[in-house]
Amino acid sequence: MSWGFLRDLLSGVNKYSTGIGRIWIAVVFIFRLLVYIAAAENIWKYEHDEFECNIKQPGCENVCFDHFFPVSHIRLWALQLIMVSTPSLLVVFHVAYRENREKHHNQKLYKSPAELDGGLLCTYLISLILKTGFEIVFLVLFYKLYNGFKVPRLVKCDIRPCPNTVDCYISKPTEKMIFLYFLVATSCLCIVLNLSEFSYLIFKYSIKCYLKRYIKKRQ
Predict the structure, then answer these.
(1) What domain range includes position 133?
(2) What are phi and psi of 167, to 5 degrees?
(3) Residue 208 belongs to a domain with what CATH number?
(4) Counting CB atoms within 10 angstroms of each CB, which of 85, 139, 186, 209 has the fewest?
(5) Signal sequence: where (predicted)?
(6) Can you give the C-alpha Rg of the chain in angstroms?
(7) What pTM was computed for the model?
(8) How many domains does one find in the chain?
(9) Burial of 175 (0-12, 13-18, 19+ CB in 10 A)
(10) At 49, is the secondary structure helix, strand, or coil?
(11) Taking 60 as the threshold, does the pLDDT of residue 2 lie above it?
């Protein structure tokens, strides 16, 4: 598939983001999307063909592979990238709504359609919550589906139609485990960035409200 749409989406959101948000976009684009396209995708490309069991019983190898890898790591990673980037569309749509509203009324309704205040700030905060939620859900999903964040060299399978317990070997386990750790590390970094940006915006908005009340009180 083409990842151009995701690149365009991240580029479009960049101009509406805070400094921390721009760092998040850089991490997603450089350390996740480009790593996925340039290296990770090729490592898991032939994972089924390179999965070998020490028996030639028809169907045994397929059943064992499906049991230990119910969803491919790389496809789940691709789905994660899409899901954590999609909430940013909310901000883009909200800014577009503001711009169209000003055109429809033919007058200036906002200081700037892209300024983070009022409804747009709420939309931005919701997008941060959704992105953080998706990150956590996918980390838990990775952990539950594969019994941790390790890729074993050898797995033992006794599922029918295998006649007995057979040994199955996973190709390039060390390389896959390194990229899996990298995935987890970048995902955790994105969670920290999202929470930091959320806290920063709440703090900034609280200070702004306090100053307004203080000025009114003084007047």
Answers:
(1) 3-218
(2) -95, 130
(3) 1.20.1440.80
(4) 209
(5) none
(6) 23
(7) 0.82
(8) 1
(9) middle
(10) coil
(11) no
- 85-106 pLDDT, tens digit per residue, is 888 888 888 877 777 877 777 7
Let me know: does 61 contact 52? Beta carbons within 8 Å.
yes
Pairing of strands 52-53, 166-169: antiparallel
Q: Are 34 and 136 in contact (CB under 8 A)?
A: no
DSSP 146-185: TTSS---SEEEE--TT-SS-EEEE-SSHHHHHHHHHHHHH
Tell me which DSSP letter residue 115 carries: S
SS3 79: helix
Structure-block tokens of residue 69: 């890898």
For the segment 181-204, the average pLDDT, to the nearest whole number, is 91
Residue located via tokens 């009324």: 105
Site of tokens 């006794």: 158
Mean pLDDT, rounded, of the chain: 81
